[in-house]
Design a protein that fits this description.
2 domains; Rossmann fold; alpha/beta; globular; single chain; 10 helices
């Protein structure tokens, strides 16, 4: 089942083509990585989903229905550029934003009590936003985004500004929201987040979608049959091309190699006839490896995806 079905969406601003014939399928209950270098078109697509702007062509279905104004309250959006009212008190602001999303004051206060406890925010309600640290403001922004418990969350670089402790706390709550049925879209160019959280991904580059699917399937698609092998002695085999070989601190031989044939069992048998085999592990490509390969070696792109 799909929560979002994006079909052939295009968007241009004057002479700039932001999106070109982009189609994506976001399954219900998934953590979906919307990936790509800066300027690829991610934010343009998010603005269309949240109905801040509209596509020039194509359509989007939300839970099987054409995307419409009634779906605005079914989406929680945390933009990369945070939008809190700095002169307003935290509690007043969160109640106000909850009311805009259709929550009664009573329901909002009950939910705020939960989030203030989870995020150790008790006593913040009477503070002005401008008096909080950046990390504290990030917590407030996250609470404002999830308070009305929307079926779809769109988080644009959600870990920006968080220290590792609070990043882990946010991660835990994101996973809990997914367990409660929420669908989450991450817009990011940080591959560490993709590796740890996302189960589906799409990659946009230069306004076009160039990759989409389950993360596990994509890794299988790009595997290059490279293995790390640990033995007690050096070995040779016609079944593999040795990339690197060294003696480690224990005196064992560490070898990195690629297979000439797609059968590692024959290589294992060949090595076992020559020496004692201590470990044999495939080196699956990282998401960073895959995306750099797809978007090319342009230095600006590489830097934007690693920053």
């Amino acid at each position: 089942m799909l929560l979002l079905d994006i079909q052939n969406v295009s968007k241009a601003y004057e002479k700039h083509q932001a999106l070109h014939d982009v189609s994506m399928s976001v399954p219900k209950g998934s953590i979906y990585g919307l990936l790509g270098p800066n300027g690829a078109g991610k934010t343009s697509l998010i603005r269309i989903i949240t109905q801040i702007t509209f596509a020039d062509s194509g359509k989007i279905l939300f839970d099987g229905e054409p995307l419409a104004p009634k779906h605005v309250n079914a989406i929680g959006y945390m933009p990369e550029e945070r939008g809190l009212y700095k002169k307003m008190k935290v509690g007043e602001q969160l109640l106000y934003l909850a009311a805009l999303k259709g929550l009664s004051e009573k329901a909002a206060k009950e939910k705020l009590a939960y989030w203030f406890d989870v995020f150790e925010m008790k006593g913040w309600g009477h503070k002005n936003v401008e008096d909080l640290s950046k990390g504290m403001q990030q917590k407030v922004q996250f609470v404002a985004t999830v308070l009305h418990e929307p079926p779809l969350l769109i988080l644009d670089e959600p870990f920006s500004g968080f220290d590792p402790v609070n990043a882990n706390l946010i991660t835990k709550e994101i996973l809990a929201l997914r367990e409660r049925g929420c669908t989450i879209i991450f817009s990011t160019h940080r591959m560490d987040t993709v590796e740890s959280l996302c189960d589906h991904i799409a990659l946009i580059n230069r306004s076009k979608k160039i990759l989409e699917g389950k993360k596990s399937d994509i890794k299988q698609q790009f595997r290059n049959f490279t293995y790390s092998i640990l033995t007690t002695q050096a070995w040779q085999s016609e079944l593999a091309n040795t990339v690197a070989q060294k003696v480690n601190t224990d005196g064992h031989i560490e070898t990195t190699c690629t297979l000439n044939k797609n059968s590692y069992s024959a290589l294992v048998a060949d090595i076992a006839q020559q020496t004692e085999l201590l470990a044999f592990q495939e080196q699956m490509p990282t998401m960073d490896d895959i995306f750099i390969r797809l978007v090319g070696e342009d230095s600006d792109i590489k830097n934007s995806m690693k920053s």
